[in-house]
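Quick start: load a record and inspect it. Here is RecA family profile 1 domain-containing protein:
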Amino acid sequence: MDPQVQSALSSAGLQTYKDLLMVPVTDLMKVTGLSFKQVEQVLTNAASAWRSPPLTALQMKLSLSVHCLSLGCPLMDELLKGGLPVGGVTELYGQSGAGKTQIALQLCVSVQYPQDQGGLDSGAVFICTEDSFPVKRLQQLIGEQHRLRPQLTALTSQINFSDNVYIEHAADLASLRLCLSQRVPLLVARGLVRLLVLDSIAALFRSEFQASDWMERNKQLISFSSKIKDLSQQFNLVVLCINQVTDVMDQSGGSSGPSPSLGLCWSNSVMVRLRLTRLPQWVSEGGQHSALRRLEVEFSPHLPPHSLPVAVWRGGVRGLQ
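Running the structure step on this input writes:
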């Protein structure tokens, strides 16, 4: 091993192969000051050199701690067993006005808190494909942090939340490809972000492909979904992809209700699928009024199908008892 690399690892307190393999790539870069290529080479050497008895699936599950990003609401975190998983793609779909972007914005704030407060001590990159970024709403959420987390007033006053949200606008698939292949990896490699939000994945495919172009559309969709999945796993990111809905026709010609856009090709790359539905009822709290919503776990490898009533307040989306 290169003496400089060995010295950096030793100074960071990483003495064994197991220590190295249990730390995310971005965290290794941060604590050691090594480049991405150096860390990648160290992990390759560690994986090939570490010899241990085979593990059962249960032993592996117990030995690995599953990191999640908190949504900043205890009830929503309880529904999701801690929050959105790190190293996987979460899809949030629903009709317009359901509150999908609201959840994405509060995650951009939550990710900046330390890990012991449910965050990842890092920033977020927010890719817009349709509407302009809702900067006023983000500022409102930031301004409410001292009320939502009064026990952390000293900490919230030290975090410059606005400086750690990086905004990208992708008006076409070429711009999105450039963003995912060059700009996002650069931000991650510098240790600046651990959350990637794509709002929304379906918009560009709807605008650039006709019904007759289904074969090329699926080819491009598979390429993009693979890239997003690789980013989440390679850099240990939390990835939230907001998706639109489309009406599915049943055999009788009627509508069977809204379903997430993009179909099976996209679904195969999603680890967790969440559905957000706006309901006709209204709720009130502290002089504020909100349409009632339902946040539902549609599928997940570690969560049972379950739902929670939620509402949108000035401080963000919150679960209701």
